[in-house]
């Protein structure tokens, strides 16, 4: 997505209109107060001024790489980040299916589990599988696990992560529903709260499994509302960082999240 397109979806038209209105008003006042001086200004100056106003509007409308929203009365914050989830390797939630599938041949190289195998275990599915099986045995669990359960495992080089068992495997791939998400989110916040964690990093949980049934932007809204509601009951974590992959990013995500979180008592 080009920069101008991103700026447009992030409110460029409104900002440009506001800037033009402000400048037009200022020029109008100046022409009344100083008619001679204003009339002598060359048209090239007005054209340059218009170009500067448009450029400022574009720059102000470009979505940044991250945005932090702090709840005004609570002691927690939400951060939205564009990037790679696995760059944050301490307290990372990785979505998986309830069968805890770890083989790239089953989950694909584009899935988060597949990326963990490639980036953290040098492409060794066997090493990742052994790590997960050890974690399951340590907690006396077997597959398939219950919806919304976390499987904690320690990756190489001191990495720390959880597999969040969400989707159900079918012959057509892994799928989840709004009802599953609602239930799983609630269980996720309970487990993270019990860990007394300062910060947690997660993807837009559910969007990748849902395919065409759930949009990434809609799922992000659902995720934010669920976290907010649970935090009002009792703090889940000091900071929830949601990493948005470039393939899922839509500049309207920031715009809609900013508006919704402002209504919920967050400041940007």
TrEMBL record:
<feature type="domain" description="Thoeris protein ThsA Macro">
    <location>
        <begin position="78"/>
        <end position="245"/>
    </location>
</feature>
<keyword id="KW-0472">Membrane</keyword>
<protein>
    <recommendedName>
        <fullName>Thoeris protein ThsA Macro domain-containing protein</fullName>
    </recommendedName>
</protein>
<dbReference type="Pfam" id="PF20016">
    <property type="entry name" value="ThsA_Macro"/>
</dbReference>
<feature type="transmembrane region" description="Helical">
    <location>
        <begin position="12"/>
        <end position="35"/>
    </location>
</feature>
<keyword id="KW-0812">Transmembrane</keyword>
<keyword id="KW-1133">Transmembrane helix</keyword>
<dbReference type="InterPro" id="IPR043472">
    <property type="entry name" value="Macro_dom-like"/>
</dbReference>
<dbReference type="InterPro" id="IPR045535">
    <property type="entry name" value="ThsA_Macro"/>
</dbReference>
<feature type="transmembrane region" description="Helical">
    <location>
        <begin position="41"/>
        <end position="59"/>
    </location>
</feature>
